[in-house]
Design goal:
single chain; about 190 residues; 7 helices
């Protein structure tokens, strides 16, 4: 969890350094301009403050949901607790898939784990995998890959989405060597 706290602190410090504004001040500016949609806020932050996509995306996320646990004081964040919340209730059945996928990904090398409200972002220099239950009945693996993937299981996502590709993982059988290879490629791309 220390690496997650450090990464978030560094990103927030960089945003403040680039803009001369705190996250709350940027949120107020976005709200004062009447922006309500995530994409509008992100685009405004990129154009107005010359933020990179990831930084602008973080500001947009905060603007729309400042109570997201990811924005708590890092001293109060407990990754295991946040992950537990993601896999509570009817989504508890997906925790084993999460655990198995994490075991595969941990063999690739170092990365940071950033639990969000409904999924878990895995990052190196940028996000490479997003894990989590999309609904009470569907678990998804999001991948950010430079390579073009053609496979019936893989759903390409529109430009500007959190991930380039989404793969539905319904069972342990879906965690096959091909999926592991795609995750490894995403990990390498993010380095």
């Amino acid at each position: 969890m220390d690496s997650v706290n450090k990464a978030m602190k560094t990103q927030l410090a960089n945003i403040q350094s680039k803009t001369g504004k705190t996250l709350d001040e940027l949120r107020k500016i976005a709200n004062d301009n009447g922006f309500e949609k995530h994409g509008q806020i992100r685009k405004f932050m990129i154009e107005q403050f010359e933020l990179g996509y990831g930084d602008a995306n973080l500001v947009a996320t905060y603007t729309r949901n400042p109570d997201d646990p990811a924005f708590q004081d890092p001293q109060e964040i407990d990754a295991d607790q946040l992950i537990g919340q993601i896999y509570s209730g009817p989504k508890e059945k997906f925790f084993n898939l999460h655990h198995q996928l994490m075991g595969k990904i941990e063999s690739f090398g170092e990365f940071t784990i950033s639990p969000k409200k409904s999924n878990v972002s895995l990052r190196r220099k940028r996000q490479f995998v997003l894990l989590g239950p999309a609904t009470n009945s569907r678990f998804e693996v999001g991948l950010n890959l430079k390579q073009d993937i053609k496979d019936k299981r893989v759903r390409p996502q529109p430009k500007g989405s959190m991930c380039d590709y989404i793969i539905v993982v319904n069972s342990e059988d879906d965690i096959n060597p091909q999926l592991v290879n795609w995750m490894r490629m995403a990990y390498e791309d993010a380095g």
